[in-house]
Amino acid sequence: MFFRGALTASLATAAAAQIQGFNYGATNEDGSCRTYDDFLGYFQTAKSLAGAPGFASARLYTSIQCGTVNDPISAYQAAIDTDTSILVGLWASAGRGVYENELNALLRAAEQLGTAFTDRVVGISVGSEDLYRSSPDGVAANAGVGATGAEIEGYIGWLRDWVRGTALEGKPVGHVDTWTAWVRAENAGVAASVDWLGHNSFPYFESTKPNAIEQAAENFWSAVGNTESVAGGKPVYVTETGWPHIGPQQGAAVASVDNARTYWSQVGCALFGQRNVWWYTLLDANTAQTDISNSTPRPVQHNLDLKQSTTREARKIVMEVVAAGVAWALNKAPSSQKVLTRLGLSFLATQTAVPWSDLSAQLSPQASIVLPEEPSFAGHVSRWREWHAPDVGAVVNVFTESDVQATIRFANERGLPFLARSGGHGATESLHAAKDVVVVDLRGRNEVRVNADGRTATIGGGANVKKVVNELWSAGKQTVTGICECVGISAPALGGGHGWLQGQYGLASDQVISARVVLPDGEAVTASEESNSDLFWALQGAGHNFGIVTEWQYRVYDVKNSEWSFEILIYLGDELEKVLELTNQMMKTQPAEVIHWMYFVNIPEIDPQRPVIWYAIIHDGPLDKTRDYAQPLHDIPHVTSETGSAPMPDLADKTFMGTESIGCAKGYTGLRYPIGLKTYDLPATRKVFDDIADMSNRMPEFAGSFFLLEGYSTHGVKARSDKDSAFPHRGDEILVTSYVMYKPNASLDAIAQEHGEKLRGHLLEASGDPERLRAYVNYAHGVESLETVYGWEEWRLERLRELKGKWDPQNRMRFYNPIV
């Protein structure tokens, strides 16, 4: 088997899991400009420090090469040549003209150096301690020229506008300052507009309180806590900290090599590997190092308040980290358990000692283990939506049922949480509670085989919808699956599963004859109507809570029509009420073979101000009958119409649910707010439509959002009793979901959530039962009540809780819309 990497217990090695590096100024100590050769030497030195590996990142204060107007700083090329990552800095305290030069230098670097540069950019800092210098504290300390919160907010918006459409778009944007500046009320807008907050603090200079080396760690973490208190859950990077080994005494703080070592071991070693950190510094620089193109001396670029010392020597405090001192500090560092406990991350201490080779020895030859430090790890954990995604500590790619069993037992023995993956499309907020999980990746178990009886198929638990649909179709068979091609077959079935064929045959979960399930304790069982029937009942609608399905026995059906037919019409928003009123009438007599599929979506080429109504009639039948059924829709004024036919596997692309369509597109934050309805309420849906239009116009970041209205036939669904399975929503006629889509931007998250809830609220209020929302579990946002997701009947929840206690008494399957 291929064992993909290993974790060691060494904190120094564990540090590679997060970014760590040093700060680098633009000039040397004597005021001369640093060149490419200077930066090259510094970056090489940082990466080769004896006993301190992993210092492979550089935080810069400016993007402009010293001595030029707007040439890119030579540190960028040096970073490429040494494979050093870069925290870009844009100086923001010298006025708009200089800031524009910073932007020009950055964009020129992206254009000239290409992805070799942009791939190494881990973030962009708009300014450094500008807020502190402009604050009363900074003014009193004569800290120099700064910038206000409003100015920094404007600069951040300017940056985002300029990088839009470039390879730098989407890079996390932040600002660096002191905690005393971050907590000021007038700077709240800056915290809201960034993706991360940079924290600078030097306990050595906090001479207004006890600040001897014995209090240094406590003072540092107290300062970090103050910054985190206004971060709103956003990452806080430690962008400057350190302790000098030469310099005047500050209060009780003494600059010495021993104290520098102590600070490194107590603070540095608790930081490295646990959060992004740039130490101050590898080599001292001139404190007037921002004396660049406009010949305006810029102020000191750190918060070293030297007002108590007036001599030039006092201002030349050296924060140089000596390699030997670094090695000493690492060797004398506290145990990993103590360090991680101090950070409130004691659960990671177990991981540092996880003997992954023991698991490797138990797995099949095809299986593999992928750990965070490996280059391929990001691809293995990439999901449709990264917002509130699980925090993954390891991925185990399984190929056999025994692989799954071994992985679960291994995790349980070491107290590690685990989570199954079949498609990576799960997007419930509850997944955010999964910390340091072992992902059991089932995508290697993707076989699809029609059985000899011709009426059933064996389907691997990791097969995706596209593979299942295509392979069955090639064999002349079809069955009910989810619509979106990139979704795993298992997730829809475990939650019910809506699809094109449900009007004829019922839900996806209704097609299950039996399932092989690895229980949360590692035991493998078969669940069917004859064997473990109570577990079988729970799997059909609440299955994410009970185990990992490795294989399905599934009902399949002969293909009736080699081509499905469709009519697609696009209407302007003015026709909304007519369209929905007619739809309500048509759905009263909707044939089992027909689906009404609609979007409210922005198509500016048709209407630049409002969404349009994209409406498809999809029919498992001949084209002439589809035309006859859809004819009343043609009587309503429309912009375009299209009539055609296609094999059923092609319908996903036609309805924007193919692997290359928005339904599978990665790189967006997609928030979903589903609701089950009996019929369309015209005034309520008009409110939804108008709110979408208003939001798209006011905030173009949300213009890629859409509203999906799934109007399947429900004949097959209602053919089964609602007591036959855990799926609770068989009485619904329509499934409606808002998709609030935007590029990842933490400052928009609260707005997006409020918008999505508001849209759903309009429909709920008019539903006839506003106290009882019904939300499809596979679309649920993750904040809905248990009754909303799993049913309002008291007996249903009681039974689910009882079965949860029987089949998962330790509540190990608890991350996907959990029952308990």
TrEMBL record:
<dbReference type="Pfam" id="PF01565">
    <property type="entry name" value="FAD_binding_4"/>
</dbReference>
<keyword id="KW-0732">Signal</keyword>
<dbReference type="InterPro" id="IPR016166">
    <property type="entry name" value="FAD-bd_PCMH"/>
</dbReference>
<dbReference type="InterPro" id="IPR050416">
    <property type="entry name" value="FAD-linked_Oxidoreductase"/>
</dbReference>
<keyword id="KW-0285">Flavoprotein</keyword>
<dbReference type="InterPro" id="IPR016169">
    <property type="entry name" value="FAD-bd_PCMH_sub2"/>
</dbReference>
<feature type="signal peptide">
    <location>
        <begin position="1"/>
        <end position="17"/>
    </location>
</feature>
<dbReference type="InterPro" id="IPR012951">
    <property type="entry name" value="BBE"/>
</dbReference>
<dbReference type="InterPro" id="IPR036318">
    <property type="entry name" value="FAD-bd_PCMH-like_sf"/>
</dbReference>
<dbReference type="GO" id="GO:0016491">
    <property type="term" value="F:oxidoreductase activity"/>
</dbReference>
<dbReference type="InterPro" id="IPR006094">
    <property type="entry name" value="Oxid_FAD_bind_N"/>
</dbReference>
<feature type="domain" description="FAD-binding PCMH-type">
    <location>
        <begin position="388"/>
        <end position="559"/>
    </location>
</feature>
<keyword id="KW-0274">FAD</keyword>
<dbReference type="GO" id="GO:0071949">
    <property type="term" value="F:FAD binding"/>
</dbReference>
<comment type="similarity">
    <text>Belongs to the oxygen-dependent FAD-linked oxidoreductase family.</text>
</comment>
<dbReference type="Pfam" id="PF08031">
    <property type="entry name" value="BBE"/>
</dbReference>
<dbReference type="InterPro" id="IPR017853">
    <property type="entry name" value="GH"/>
</dbReference>
<dbReference type="InterPro" id="IPR016167">
    <property type="entry name" value="FAD-bd_PCMH_sub1"/>
</dbReference>
<protein>
    <recommendedName>
        <fullName>FAD-binding PCMH-type domain-containing protein</fullName>
    </recommendedName>
</protein>
<keyword id="KW-0560">Oxidoreductase</keyword>
